[in-house]
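ok new one. same drill as before - structure tokens go in, u give me an amino acid for every spot. 263 of them this time. try not to just spam alanines like last time pls lmao
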């Protein structure tokens, strides 16, 4: 679905992404892992149009989307969440969801005067959809709570809910588990799996929690120093010598065995 070819992103002399190539298959939940500074979030930002690449190419279903701005990608169904949630803190949870769909009729003064009935109909439909999303995510009891009062995990659920308010095709989730307790992380994981299986969402997620990655993702792609280091199943990645070296600084083959204790 998404194909990245020889992608580079440089900031002056710093090469954040250096020739990365990968594919995100339609209908998959792909994991993207790697040590801090590997270039994972920068790669997400380039794919999602937040940053323009220095060079390289990104295609979606064969169509070149390299460098398209986020609002154009949004209308094509490409959405990206961030490690730190971006909510409208003074608005309610439900209102945050209702803000998502673009080009709403009530946004223009002309329509506000002359299409009041249609605007009311649109708002009722949005309200119904928002409530359905909140129920799906099991946070419908928070619909009238100010979004700024939510916990970190609840804000991550709200961000996931935003992707459900539009026709999302592929969603990039950046460290969905950061600052989230285990119970809420399981809730988020279950919602992602349901969206994948029941609604056909394609996901690519950055995460450091390998248990979560093992439960959710196939395949898993590993980045290091701006490049793709390895790709495979969770078990294959855990036993990959290059991956172990990238994370720990030394491979298993180079480790000195600990002598057995003498009786």
């Amino acid at each position: 679905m998404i194909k990245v070819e020889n992608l580079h992103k440089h900031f002056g002399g710093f090469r954040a992404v250096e020739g990365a190539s990968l594919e995100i298959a339609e209908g998959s939940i792909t994991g993207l892992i790697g040590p801090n500074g590997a270039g994972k979030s920068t790669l997400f930002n380039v794919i999602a149009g937040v940053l323009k690449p220095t060079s390289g190419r990104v295609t979606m279903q064969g169509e070149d989307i390299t460098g398209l701005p986020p609002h154009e990608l949004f209308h094509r169904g490409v959405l990206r969440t961030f490690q730190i949630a971006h909510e409208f803190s003074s608005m309610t949870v439900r209102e945050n969801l209702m803000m998502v769909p673009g080009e709403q009729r009530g946004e223009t003064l002309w329509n506000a005067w002359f299409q009041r009935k249609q605007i009311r109909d649109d708002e009722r439909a949005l309200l119904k959809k928002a409530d359905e999303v909140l129920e799906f995510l099991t946070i419908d009891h928070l619909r009238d709570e100010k979004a700024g009062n939510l916990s970190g995990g609840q804000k991550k659920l709200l961000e996931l809910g935003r992707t459900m308010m539009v026709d999302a095709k592929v969603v990039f989730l950046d460290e969905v588990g950061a600052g989230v307790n285990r119970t809420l992380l399981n809730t988020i994981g279950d919602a992602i799996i349901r969206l994948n299986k029941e609604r056909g969402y394609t996901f690519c997620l950055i995460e450091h929690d390998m248990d979560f990655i093992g439960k959710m993702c196939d395949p898993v792609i590993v980045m290091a120093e701006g490049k793709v280091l390895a790709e495979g199943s969770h078990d294959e990645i855990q036993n990959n010598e290059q991956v172990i070296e990238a994370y720990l600084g030394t491979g298993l083959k180079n480790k000195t065995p600990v002598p057995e204790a003498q009786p």
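The radius of gyration is 21 Å. and btw The CA atoms of residues 122 and 260 lie 72 Å apart.
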